[in-house]
Amino acid sequence: MTLNTAEIAKLLAGEVLGDAHAALTGFATADNAKPGDLTFAETEEFFTAAENSAATAIIAGKNSVSAKKILIRVDNPRIAFAKALAVFFPEPKFPAGIHPSAVIAQSAQIDPTAHIGPHCTIGERVKIGANVILQSGNFVGNDSTIGDETNLFPNVTIYSRTQIGKRVRIHSNTVIGSDGFGYVFDASFHRKVPQIGNVVIGDNVEIGSNVSVDRGALGSTIIGKGTKIDNLVQVAHNVEIGEHCILCAQVGIAGSAKLGNYCVLAGQVGIAGHLKIGHRVTIGSKAGVMHNIPDGEQWLGIPAQPDKQAKRIMIAMQRLPDLFKKIAAWEKKLGANE
Q1: Which of 47, 55, 86, 103 has the most CB atoms in a 10 Å sphere around its CB?
Q2: Does any domain span residue 324?
Q3: Contacts for 191 with CB less than 8 Å, ≥ 6 apart
């Protein structure tokens, strides 16, 4: 793809400082850029590297100037970077139609614009919307619904009665709607509690690879619109995740926990069952959450606590070796017994 700097600036809602007709044929980092490439810089360090690179033009902040390079100046270089990548590296296109190896129930309703790839299985009464992509090896259970422009990467499994919104992306080997982990001890064994609910996923959700989202025991497990879930995450039965949340890799959320909107859970956070996490809460990596968290707070640690308290404890723990030495010195001085 070849566009000039003025065309790219228009797509990015930016302005050109320099030659508005210079041809741009690719996008690369400063250390890999060649003539014709566009690069970006959001810090002084990156800007210096970009100026000294072979790139033709740089996406940079509004106040940036350069005697060496053409600039496309924007309000937020990071956002412009994401938009530019989508221009130079568009998503692959999948033609409408159903592959001969797909197995589809007669009662399924599939929009004619959908792409059903090799070895997909679609159950009874499934509804698949416009421009949906099932890439290959996908299983969609009975009575499920998949909204327009949703993309299932290879080998995604969707259990029965799952409801998926529009423009959802689910990556390979993820399982949506598997049994919740529900048992009750009966005399001498663990009796399984049937899990008869489902999973509901809102619009514009993205779910990484090897994620498990369990269906509700009764009712639904819910993932709100705009939420993004990283790889290797476990969402247990009847969990409710609000809108526009970020869940990083290896997060685990126990049954019936509820998260508000715009929450951020860093890597390996664990949340105990039946807790309520407020809106705009941020939880640091590896935190073990065992209490409800009010709106807007930041928590850290094992067990998780408000960040200021957790940091005080961490600092105090770092001082423990010196404190023990002082105590030992005082005991020796005072002649204390061991």
Answers
A1: 55
A2: no
A3: 183, 184, 185
Same domain, yes or no: 301 and 168: yes
pLDDT > 90: percent of the chain: 94
**Whole-angstrom distance, CA of residue 282 vs CA of residue 262:** 9
**DSSP letters for 105-138:** -TT-EE-TT-EE-TT-EE-TT-EE-TT-EE-SS-
One-letter amino acid at 124 equals E
SS3 of residue 184 by DSSP: strand
Q: Which of 119, 237, 274, 279 is catalytic?
A: 237
CA–CA separation, 171 and 228 (whole Å): 12
What are the pLDDT digits (tens) for 159-211?
999 999 999 999 999 999 999 999 999 999 999 999 999 999 999 999 999 99
Arithmetic mean of pLDDT, 95-103: 98
State the residue range of the domain holding 63.
3-88
99 noted as active-site residue: no
Kindly report the CATH number assigned to the domain that includes residue 46: 3.40.1390.10
Domains of the chain: total: 2
